[in-house]
Structure formats: C-alpha cells, structure tokens
Amino acid sequence: MSAVPSAHPVAGAAAPVVTSSLEGGVATLTLARPAQRNSLSEAMMAALTSALASLAVDPSVRAVVLAAEGPVYSAGHDLKEIQGHRGDADRGRAYFEDVLKRCSQLMTAIVRLPQPVIAAVEGMATAAGCQLVASCDLAVAGEQARFCTPGVNIGLFCHTPMVAVSRNLARKHAMEMLLLGEWVGADEARRMGLVNRVVPAGEALAAAQGLARRIAEKSQVPVKLGKAAFYAQAELGLDDAYAYASRVMAENMLARDAEEGISAVLAKRAPVWEDR
C-alpha cells in the first residue's frame, strides 16, 4: 500500500487530496478536499487514478470503499480550472478534451479494477461526482445524500456523467435526471437504481465497509472473474453474452476454490479458500 497516498503525510508535505487506509482486506480511499467540495480537479483525478492502479495489483486488497470528507461527496469537475482555459488560443478545446479524457480514464479504472468498489455517500454528489458514484459497483448513501446531473441548468449537458448514469438507471429515469437537472434524494436514488442501500445519516461509510468486509471473506477467484464478466457480457447481444459467460464459468469451475467450495457443500462443512 506504500504507493497509495498516505493518510498521514510527512511533516511539511502538502496535504494529500486522497487519503487511504487498509484493514481486513478492505481499502478505503477518501476524497480529502472538503473546502473545495471534493471537486474532481486535475490533482484529485490524478491521485485517484494512481491510488486505484496501486490497489489493482495489491493482493492484500480484496474490496475498496470510496468515501469523502465533509458535507459534499463530490461537486464534479473543478469549474475554476475549466474557466481558466477560456482564454487559450483554441478557447480551451484542447484542455477540455484532455481533462474529460482523464476523467473517463478514472471512471473506467473503477469499473475495470479487479476488486469491487463501493461508494459511501454522504451529502451531495453532483455532475461528475454523481458519475463517480454510478461508476462504482455498489453504493451506500446516507439518508440525507442527494444526487444531481445539473449541467443542463448551466448550458452544459452532462454528456460524460450520462455514460455511467445511463448504465445504472432505466432510460427514462436517466433522461429525467439529465434533462431536468433536479436533485434526487437518497430514497429516490435507491428506487431508481443509483444506490443499493440507504442508511441513517453519518453511517454510510460504516455500512459500505461492512459490505466490503463481507465480500472480502469470499474467494477472490469468483469475485474478480465475476466482476469483469458482468461488465463484459452487458455490452454483448444475448447469444454472445451466454457464450462468453459459459466460457468464463467453465474456467471458474476449474479453479481450486470452486472445487473446494462444491466439495464443502457436499460434505456439509465450511470451505477453506486459497484464492486460486
């Protein structure tokens, strides 16, 4: 975990924009710019992308929780950074394309991370912040959490958040969020499919870590194969999806832990996982 930004920076060093901790196989990454509403600045996106890359190859990490400090989970892109490039010779086009590419790479890094990622949301998640939640595999929200894709209200449709949101919600629910740009409360977000569970305010992190610990107890062979397969088959037609899933399941059946798990069921005993 040494490559992941530390929650305890050395004396004199700049405070990290993302902090990390690891306990019982569960890594918790925390957005740590509450004064800036945890906006997805260039520094924040770089830190998150780097942290995820380190977690992806760390065998001690079995699940990841993505939390945030302060009353705002994430306000999306740093609008001051964006506006600062309006004076560029191309009116900011090259910068806009680059920053959106980096944001997209961050979101796909979450989806492609071998370990499941659970968002722990308190407060507001708006625009690319809502996209961040939608990109996670699971999401737990405090009862006062709110979600919004408000770009349409400022002349800027939430095109890139749309990609993640539309892959979580039914089309009409997604279009409602994108066209109206209105706040959606935690209970409504759960009904729409954006979050899995709603808990009392202030308890989202503990609840998300609880889910992560339950995942961490399982063999990592089916968890990692299953997460990758879930997203891959979702992009295929029905016949191709079944063919692909059958190949992956056959591979899974050959794993030592699958043999152990089936043997344990037949012997009516608890399985002993080796993660292979």
From TrEMBL:
Biological processes annotated in GO: fatty acid metabolic process
Q: Known InterPro entries for this protein?
A: ClpP/crotonase-like_dom_sf, Enoyl-CoA_hydra/iso, Enoyl-CoA_hydra_C, Mitochondrial_ECH-domain
The protein's UniProt keywords, in alphabetical order, are: Fatty acid metabolism, Lipid metabolism, Lyase, Transit peptide
Q: Which domain of life is it from?
A: Bacteria
Q: Name one GO molecular function term.
A: hydro-lyase activity
Q: Which Pfam families match?
A: ECH_1 (PF00378)
Keyword Lipid metabolism in record: yes
- Kindly give the NCBIfam families that the UniProt entry links to this protein: PRK08139.1
Q: What does this protein do?
A: May play a role in fatty acid biosynthesis and insulin sensitivity.
Family, per entry = Belongs to the enoyl-CoA hydratase/isomerase family.
What's the protein called, per UniProt?
Enoyl-CoA hydratase domain-containing protein 3, mitochondrial
